[in-house]
Amino acid sequence: MVRVDLMFQKLVRYFFVLGAGSVLAAGLWINFAGLDEAGTGIILAYGEEKSHSMTRSGSDVLREGRLLAGKALAQDVLALRKARMLRQGYIDQVRSMHQQEEAREAAAGNGSSGISYSQKDYEVLQRIVEAEAGGCDAKGRILVANVIINRVKSQEFPNTVTGVVYQKSQFSPVKNGTLNSCTVSEETKMAVDRALAGEDYSQGALYFMNRRWSDAGNAAWFDQRLTYLFQHGGHEFFR
Predict the structure, then answer these.
(1) Nearest-CA neighbor of 1 among 45, 33, 38?
(2) How many helices and strands (H and E) does the chain possess?
(3) How far are the Cα atoms of 55, 147, 172, 181, 201 from residue 110, in angstroms, in the given order?
(4) Can you list the positions of beta strands (E) in the chain?
(5) Is 127 exposed, middle or buried, given 0-12, 13-18 or 19+ CB atoms closer than 10 A?
C-alpha cells in the first residue's frame, strides 16, 4: 500500500503558502482505495467544508490540492507497478535458470551414467557423437555416446570424456578436424543427454567402426583382436 503521509505534509505546506486562512476553513482527506492486480490504483481526494464561510479562494486551493494529490500518488502507483514488473522479471529469469539446471541434472546427472564430467566434457561428447553418428538414428547416436562413457569408466582408457576423445589415434574426427567443424544438432544433444542419464544399448562395447569407411588394415585389427558384439546401422560394436 502506498503511504500518503509525506504527500499530505507537502499539501499542507502548499496550502499555507497560498493562504493560511483558506486552510483553516477547509480540511483535506486523501483516501487510497488500494491496488488492483495490474498494479494500477484508484485515488480519491475529498474536501469537506468545516465552515459555511469557506471563501472562493479556499475552494480554488482545495481544487489544486486534489490535482496535486492525485497526480503525485498516481506517479507513486506507476513507480510501484514498474518495480513489481522488474522484480517479477528477475524472479522469472532466476526460476528459468534453476529449471534449466534441474533439467540438465536430471537428464545428464553425474550419477546416472556412472561418470562425472565438466561442461567441456559435455560439449566434446556432443561433438564426437555428431561427427561419428550425425547421420544415424537416435539409438545409433546413443550407442556412440555409450562407447565413450564406457571408456571413461574403464581402466584401459583415460578417466574423462575429453581425455578419451582426444586420446591419440582413436577417433578420426579428431585427426581430420570434423570434431570442431561440425554443427551439433538438437537430435544429437538429446541423444547425449539420454546416454548420460543412463540409457545404454552398448552391451559394454568399448569400440565401434564403420567397415565401409575403414581401410582393410584397421578392419582386420578389430576382427582379430576384439570381440564382436553386434551391428546397428553402419556401425559394428566390439569389446
Answers:
(1) 33
(2) 9, 5
(3) 81, 17, 27, 27, 19
(4) 26-35, 41-49, 207-209, 228-232, 235-238
(5) buried
User: In angstroms, how far apart are the furthest CA atoms of the chain?
Assistant: 116
Give the contacts of 50 (CB within 8 A, at least 6 positions apart): 25, 26, 27
Asked if pLDDT for residue 108 goes beyond 50, the answer is no
Q: What is the pTM of this model?
A: 0.55
Question: What are 134's three cell numbers?
Answer: 550425425
What's the one-letter identity of residue 50?
Answer: K
The SS3 of residue 50 is coil
Please report the DSSP string for 52-104 in residue order. TT--HHHHHHHHHHHHHHHHHHHHHHHHHHHHHHHHHHHHHHHHHHHHHHHHH
Q: Between the CA of residue 117 and those of 158, 163, 189, 191, what are the distances in Å?
A: 12, 11, 15, 16
Query: Distance between CA 219 and CA 233 in Å, rounded?
Result: 17
- Whether the CB-CB separation of 55 and 21 falls below 8 Å is answered with yes
What residue type is 199 in one-letter code? E
Examine the pLDDT at 74 and tell me if it is beyond 80: no
**203-227 residue pLDDT tens:** 999 999 999 888 888 899 999 999 9
* Contact indicator for 235, 144 with CB cutoff of 8 Å: yes
